[in-house]
Specification:
- With about 575 residues, the chain is α+β, with helices and mostly antiparallel strands.
- It folds into two domains: about 250 residues, 3-Layer(aba) Sandwich (D-Maltodextrin-Binding Protein, domain 2); about 220 residues, Dipeptide-binding Protein, Domain 3 (Dipeptide-binding Protein, domain 3, Roll).
- The protein has 15 helices and 21 strands.
């Protein structure tokens, strides 16, 4: 009986194994160790080679999945970029839900968002912008240039009373196709791309809503945008206060990601409640808090392109006296405000130009004794020993005017602490202060009518790190829709502001410096501090590096790149 080839091969292998095993048994201990060592080294080498091969030909990339929950110390009312934001919560939601032609790059500049290309013609007077392919709203309708133009028309509408209204009324907007549009400016304006960071609204949902009914639309609570995350659900109390928003990743988003499956925002009334939620691990991150540290959380402190100032109404008779303005500057303890009122979330500054390289500038001096001397030399005395200085403002009158002033401010706890600190400082040099806290609507109305003696305001650069100070300081901006709240008028400053918009051969930094020194000399107010944003985030989450923020919401401008998990993929050869 014959054996087939498979059986012969099997028998041969068994015989050779037996011979090898038999031969191994005759080896000495040293020889066995030597051969075993060779075998182990060979095996280890094979494993190391396999690992090196795998890791050299693969790369880690974000993997979809995970839920991020953030706590914010404020509550949203209107999640609508056309309605001026009244809280950090609204800014955050709008950044996650809506898109813009360009967005913050988290370092004082802008980067393309909906826009794919931008070409500039006619010496900077014509901008041709082409949108990306396959842009969709969260209800799966196509996003086109019609939506961009519609949003701009809302800004132009006088009934909306947008701070951007005057700007856009000066610009011609032409739709060339669903993907391409042309912007024509009256003259070259180097900061124009920064004005293309406005959030876009869907025309098909808003076009039939009357302006006077805009605030009543359900879309303000359940918004439809085109950003990386779409509205999923909200939790409200019986009185309508929103406690939580849950957002889901938008699967037709046009950029990379979004990687996180869901983005949840929870809203809290104060720092104590929010920090307690963080410690209980009810949230993964918390923003707008004191500079605290917790294990397993990364602490980040970022400068913001925002300066808080105490502005004088320079049309008020008392502020016609530069000695009064100077004394208030010298008597205000900025560092005490930072340490005690805002828990370190700022740095003292005397800058008036909100530019990236100017935020840390501070040559101001706290000198209450000198403030008293200046006022005394100017004729201010405490005639009746009530602690308040007085003076006859004119030789034609025998009546003494007391140095009594009021500070208008938006009624929120942090700003209340700031003005209380200023009040105490000024009381020490004989200036009586009345504090006037107002809700946001009345506060905005008083700002527009310029009905205040002094006002505490935080101003943010509209144009990122390369600031355009024109809207804040040019004399044409003293009107009700302008942002020149000190009612500051100086022809030399106007010329510099115009040159900054079109510097020609002049260096922009030099123009900033010259303007800064000129306005500081005139003292139309007191620059107090440049804001900083403190936040804690769970170590497990990965976020892009951030340098400087234009606003609270800018921290989420690249939220599509946030991720929790990683995976390895083969590198294409």
């Amino acid at each position: 009986m014959f054996l087939n080839q498979d059986k012969l091969r099997s028998l041969a292998s068994k015989l050779s194994f037996k011979r090898l095993a038999s031969g191994f048994s005759y080896l000495s201990i040293k020889e066995k160790i030597f051969f075993l060592s060779l075998a182990v080294l060979g095996f280890v080498g094979l494993v190391v080679f396999s690992f090196n091969f795998y890791f050299s030909r693969t790369v880690l990339i974000p993997r979809n999945g995970g839920v991020y929950t953030e706590g914010i110390i404020s509550y949203p009312r209107f999640v609508n970029p056309i309605i001026p934001d009244q809280s950090d919560a609204e800014e955050a939601l709008e950044s996650l839900i809506f898109s813009s032609l360009f967005k913050s790059d988290n370092n004082g500049g802008v980067m393309p968002d909906l826009a794919e290309t931008m070409n500039i013609f006619e010496n900077g007077k014509v901008y041709l912008i082409t949108l990306r392919d396959n842009l969709f709203w969260h209800d799966n309708e196509k996003l086109t240039t019609q939506d961009i133009a519609f949003t701009i028309e809302l800004f132009k509408n006088p009934e909306i009373k947008s701070p951007l209204g005057d700007f856009w009324r000066e610009i011609s907007v032409e739709i060339l196709s669903d993907k391409t549009m042309k912007f024509t400016l009256k003259k070259n304006y180097q900061f124009f791309p920064f004005y293309l960071t406005f959030k876009v609204l869907p025309k098909h949902l808003w076009q039939d809503i009357q302006t006077n009914s805009l605030v009543f639309s359900e879309l303000n609570l359940k918004p439809i945008g085109s950003g990386p995350y779409k509205f999923k659900k909200l939790i409200q109390e019986k009185d309508g206060k929103v406690l939580q928003y849950s957002l889901a990743a938008f699967d037709r988003y046009y950029l990379e990601g979004p990687y996180l499956e869901s983005f949840v925002l929870k809203f809290y009334p104060d720092e104590t409640t929010a920090l307690a939620a963080l410690r209980k691990k009810e949230i993964n991150g918390l923003t707008g808090i004191p500079s605290v540290s917790l294990s397993n959380y990364r602490k980040k402190t970022l400068p913001m392109l925002s300066i808080f100032s105490l502005f004088f109404n320079n049309e008020n008779e008392l502020f016609q006296d530069k000695n009064v303005r100077n004394a208030i500057n010298l008597a205000t303890n900025k560092q005490k405000i930072i340490d005690e009122a805002i828990n370190g979330a700022g740095q003292a500054t005397d800058a008036v130009v909100i530019a990236k390289d100017f935020l840390s500038q501070n040559q101001s001096v706290y000198d209450p004794e000198k403030a008293r001397e200046i006022l005394k030399t100017a004729g201010w005395e405490d005639k009746d020993d009530d602690g308040i200085l007085e003076k006859r403002l004119s030789t034609k009158t025998k009546t003494y005017t007391k140095l009594e002033l009021s500070i208008l401010y938006h009624d929120i706890p942090e700003l209340g602490k700031v003005v209380e600190s200023i009040k105490n400082d000024l009381n020490q040099v004989g200036i009586s202060i009345v504090l006037k806290p107002l809700g946001i609507n009345e506060f905005s109305s008083r700002l527009q009518s310029r009905s205040y003696q002094m006002v505490l305001l935080g101003e943010t650069s509209i144009t990122g790190g390369r600031s355009d100070p024109y809207p804040f300081w040019h004399s044409t901006q003293v009107s009700s829709l302008g942002l020149n709240f000190p009612i500051y008028k100086n022809k030399d400053a106007d010329k510099l502001l115009e040159q900054i918009r079109d510097p020609g051969s002049r260096n922009l930094a030099e123009l900033y410096l010259e303007l800064n020194e000129l306005i500081k000399f005139d003292q139309p107010g007191v620059s107090l501090y440049a804001s900083k944003l403190n936040f804690l985030i769970d170590d497990s989450f990965h976020v892009p590096e951030m340098g400087v923020l234009g606003s609270f919401g800018d921290r989420f401008s690249r939220a599509n790149e946030w991720y929790l998990y990683l995976k390895r993929v083969w590198i294409p050869q």
